[in-house]
Amino acid sequence: MSEKTEKINYRDPALYTNRELSWLQFDHRILSEARDKNIPLFERLKFLSISASNLDEFFMVRVASLKDMIHAGYTKKDIAGLSPEKQLSQVKKATHELVSLQYATYNRTLLPQLLANGMHVVTHHENLTQEQAEYLDRYFEDNIYPVLTPMAVDSSRPFPLIRNKSLNLGALLKKKGEKGAEIEFATVQVPSVLPRIITIPAELFTDKAKAHVILLEEVIERNMDKLFLNYDVICSHPFRIMRNADLSIDEDEAEDLLKEIEKQLKKRQWGEAIRLEVEEDVDKRLLKIINKELKLENEDIYYINGPLDLTFLMKMYGMEGFDGLKVKPYKPQPVRELPADCDIFEEISKRDILLHHPYQTFEPVVSFIQKAAKDPQVLAIKQTLYRVSGNSPIIRALAQAAENGKQVSVLVELKARFDEENNIVWAKMLEKAGCHVIYGLVGLKTHSKITLVVRREEDGIRRYVHLGTGNYNDATAKLYTDLGLLTCQEEIGEDATAVFNMLSGYSEPKSWNRLSVAPLWLKDKFLYLIGREEENARVGAPARIIAKMNSLCDIDIIEALYKAASAGVKIDLIVRGICCLKVGIPGVSENITVRSLVGNFLEHARVFYFENNGSGEVYMASADWMPRNLERRVEILFPILQEDLKKKAIHILQVQLDDTLKAHVLQPDDTYAKVDRRGKKLCCAQDTFCEEAVAEAKDESPETAVTGRVFKPETAQHLE
Prior knowledge:
The structure is a single chain. With 720 residues, this protein is of the alpha/beta class. It folds into four domains: 8-123 and 306-327, Polyphosphate kinase N-terminal domain (Methane Monooxygenase Hydroxylase, Chain G, domain 1); 127-246 and 274-302, polyphosphate kinase like (2-Layer Sandwich); 344-505, 2-Layer Sandwich (Endonuclease, Chain A), CATH 3.30.870; 518-715, Endonuclease, Chain A, CATH 3.30.870.10. The strands form five sheets. Strands 14, 18, 19, 20, 21, 23, 24, 25, 26 and 27 form a ten-stranded mixed beta sheet that branches. Strands 10, 11, 12, 13, 15, 16, 17 and 22 form an eight-stranded mixed beta sheet that branches. It has a six-stranded mixed beta sheet with strand order 2-4-3-7-8-9, with helices on both faces. It is globular. The two termini are 26 Å apart.
């Protein structure tokens, strides 16, 4: 080790970025897609909606957590040297800037573009023609009025509890005919059970637009006088409250985790208010009344120039008649190794099979469990479930397997954030069907994605295993990019059995054959692999790391990466969201690049490549490089051992590194910039994988032909 390297303090807070501010940078990258004129207009609406939805969750969880720390008197600084108070101050400043940019994008860019393309959004009910107004007034009487519950506030009626994330209209009222009558406050919730976007009939158009739409709250506001017949409505304005939604569960004290989580879910609706959104020109008297109840600081109030809660744009995206302004839907392709009506167990017994979703269909994973449920030779099915769809075919298959007399063990993670309620419902259903349901381990979330099928065959018991980077959710598998491995390798099967024995019986194996499992073994495995590359670089051997994940904020991992880079290891990171590592620091991170891909699919896979002195190793995992994944969750890292699959995984990483259209590259000043395309071949990794999957599904030869690219597994080289 050089004298210079020894003097570097790799724990210096100046070498790290605050995770909350890094997360906001991620939302900026999503927002930048909404601002990109090269992207179809309705896709831009979708990205703006996603940025708004992400910001909501950020407040409910991350901002809420910072406020909890401050209330508790917690003063410990984060890896970037910021106290909770300092973090919150910087986060508030950054979020106000982000919200301003969201609405500038909506008002100045998207609304005019929508109008130019035939979508007329009526921004205020006063802009309606007489015929349109009469139609909407009738619509209000017939469809909206019966659902509304106006709530007045006076000495006998206290300020109502306003639900988290609900959109409301506040009003100031004055009794009719009374001189000197006091101004009173009332509120009405905009019902979420009704469509927020109301379409005006085409015969009422006065232009050549394809559609005229108005938002539900505008129609209610127009008719507020009908809700308070004995009052004059002085003013009315929409407002929206965000509350602390971070569950606080003491598992040691909770005798029944299921009941405790059900109880906490009810509290989520009424947690501490942490953000208030109001119309930009809100009456100051009205705002004072609302905030007297909520007790928010000025920085927690967001004055909005436009409709509150931009997530409605996702509903607009789904409107018919505008397909030319959207990306053509992609249909996940069949997997060549698993033709229709094949014996899936026989095919897995021949070779390992790597699945790349959503480019390839998720159907083989569902089929794997469905066929195991019916197969008379299958003795047992064991599976971990973190998030599944509301009407999951996997849940139905597991229930059927239990009814067919098979031993079915399912670990249901009740603490999967914002999916707790859904998970409780189908956990109870599985129990009724006869499945043995485990509710996770005390103090840990089980985030691993693993299925074990135990089958009796002619030559004895054989174990079939599916390991994945994403959830067993057939709905999100069409939207999230993930990888999965189907294998019956004996060593992995033994490890899978050990995983489930650990989860159900708390028995820790003395050693693992192939898998590495958090929270006890995984972090050490990663540190070993990074350290091995560092040592190889120091002796002049080939050394390279490529790591793809959702988030990077573990200080031990980042320190190890800094040390490896200082020793000369070339490190390329593909990090979708949070990244607390800095690039371009002289003597520390000059050999590190970080890129984030934001495309039509949500990047979700975790893939890790280590050069290992010319004998490259590839791993996949359910875990990101975050303390929670490595220290407080049950996660699994699994190797890709079959040579053709290893080369396929390397190819996937290389294509993402080649992306020049959707990649945002981290700069030394902590900002992200799109790739400079001058002199470079245009490449969109997600489009390339779509083309590859289509070509592979059609091609019976062992190579995958792509437009402008041919990938031959048998000739693929290690990364340059």
